[in-house]
User: Which sequence fits this backbone?
């Protein structure tokens, strides 16, 4: 089982997220977004730490407007935690490692 972050597009969203067999953390980002560069190592770290019970995907906002609209992403970086099509948690902007981990812990226990 790979612990890496999977890069997806709108076209792959249903297969990779909605049909996943465990909760999925979606990381919305943009190439022009400075704060997104800061969050990338944290996202990779979460993917490794929780690889046994969480899938982590990243989706670039500009080429993928469907997911952005569907999950009401207003700014990047943004996070959405889904189980199937149910939204468990969301966060926008730069968040601390502690905040991300506690958000995940509260839903993955």
Assistant:
């Amino acid at each position: 089982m790979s612990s890496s972050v999977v890069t997806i597009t709108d076209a792959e969203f249903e297969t990779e997220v909605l049909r996943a067999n465990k909760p999925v953390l979606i990381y919305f980002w943009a190439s022009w977004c400075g704060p997104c560069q800061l969050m990338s190592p944290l996202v990779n770290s979460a993917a490794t730490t929780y690889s046994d019970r969480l899938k982590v995907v990243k989706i670039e906002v500009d080429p993928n407007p469907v997911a952005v609209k569907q999950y009401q992403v207003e700014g990047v970086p943004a996070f959405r935690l889904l189980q199937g099509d149910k939204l468990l948690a969301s966060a926008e902007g730069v968040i601390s490692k502690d905040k991300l981990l506690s958000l995940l812990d509260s839903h993955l226990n």
Q: What stands out?
A: The first helix runs from residue 10 to 18.
